[in-house]
Amino acid sequence: MRWPTITLFPQPYDARATIQVTQWLFIGTLLLPIAVIVAIDAQALLTTGAAIGAVLLIVATTIVMRPPLDLTPTVALFYAVPVLDALALFAMRAQAPTSTTRLLLALTIPAV
Question: In whole angstroms, what is the distance from residue 52 CA to residue 8 CA?
Answer without folding.
Answer: 30
